[in-house]
Amino acid sequence: MPLLAPVSTLRTYDGQAHVHAHDHAQIMAPLAGRMELEINGQALFADPSCGMLIPAGARHAYCAQPGTRILVIDAPESTGLERLRRFALTPACRTLGSQGDARQQLALLLGLPTVLSSRRGLDLTRLDAALSRTLHEPWPTARMAALFNLSPQRFHARLLELTGHTPGSHLRTLRLEIASRMLAQGATLEFVAAQVGYRSGSALAYALRRDRGMGARALRLSPPGQRRPDTDGL
Fold this sequence. Notes:
Number of helices: 8
Helix content: 25-40%
Radius of gyration: 21 Å
Structural class: alpha+beta
CATH topology of the largest domain: Jelly Rolls
Strand content: 15-25%
CATH superfamily of the largest domain: Jelly Rolls
CATH class of the largest domain: Mainly Beta
Number of domains: 2
CATH architecture of the largest domain: Sandwich
């Protein structure tokens, strides 16, 4: 049945698809993860910093990282949807969901600036794996950037585009997430602090309270998924 009006859905991808084509245009705005695409023989990618407009009839295949989430708008052919185009996603696009009006979502995405050059992607899974193995060590931006053969300035800009966080903020979030899990499993505050790169248990406790609204005692006593705010101090 022919598509008469835009339809938006929030889809989760995990794996790959063989070459195929649609009789309608497809606009893709990734919210998480990364998708490698081949469109009419051209290798491209889409991630939370860069969306994709695939015109009707374009032959394409894809391979997506596990857990990749993309807002997809299927739209009938019309002005503005005739050509393959990559567009820069803004931080506001991360709030897009399948409950919005598809016409409004389409208008918003079509109004975003075109990406003229192919920016190098960042494999966030690889980054987090490298950080997690040695969280107790210093991780300046230059060290993270070297994982991807980027300058610190370009790495900072790309990570900010992808996640909305600076390298320091991304590292802190990962350290506190892992610390929270370790404490919930019964590890001591001083031990966890040494493992995740804090100079002392008190420094970690302060960071947990400031950034996550919880104290170490609550994390140790509450099972995962049932954590409560700590109001009795440390």
